[in-house]
Automatic annotation (TrEMBL):
Official protein name in the record: RNA-binding (RRM/RBD/RNP motif) family protein
GO molecular function: RNA binding
A Pfam entry, by short name: RRM_1
Keyword presence, RNA-binding: yes
Entry keyword set: RNA-binding
UniProt cross-references to InterPro entries, sorted A to Z: Nucleotide-bd_a/b_plait_sf (IPR012677), RBD_domain_sf (IPR035979), RRM_dom (IPR000504)
Domain RRM, first and last residues per copy: 50-134
Gene3D superfamilies: 3.30.70.330
Originating species: Forsythia ovata
Amino acid sequence: MAMRAAATSTAASFVAPRGLRALYSSLTSGFPFNPPQTQTEKPPPAEPSTNLFVSGLSKRTTTEGLRDAFAKFGEVVHAKVVTDRVSGFSKGYGFVRYATLEEAAAGIKGMDGQFLDGWVILQSMRDQDLLLHL
DNA sequence: GCTGAGCGG
């Protein structure tokens, strides 16, 4: 009879029916549609980056040309004209990464709207908003 | 490698 006693004691734990559990949680947390997102702190929704998206490039502009043009405003850590992997031709945009945010901001201010290989190059609004006011 | 908005590796 010791075995019977053990069996009954382990089976003693009981779970409430799903319907009751759902009702309980809706009573304790307000409603099934949990609204309470009490997050009053949201200072950096999008973090500024030293990496700039550069569009409007001439399809003849190369990674070197891009780096040269942007190097006047700071230390260019990484520059790349995006090319199609199969054809190898420029897609007309690229990326420039500076060492610091200050240089990145200077790079935007210095290069936005400037000509490079006959094309007016433009920075993304995202990057400008994030960098030009810091 | 023309094309002309877009966010690669």
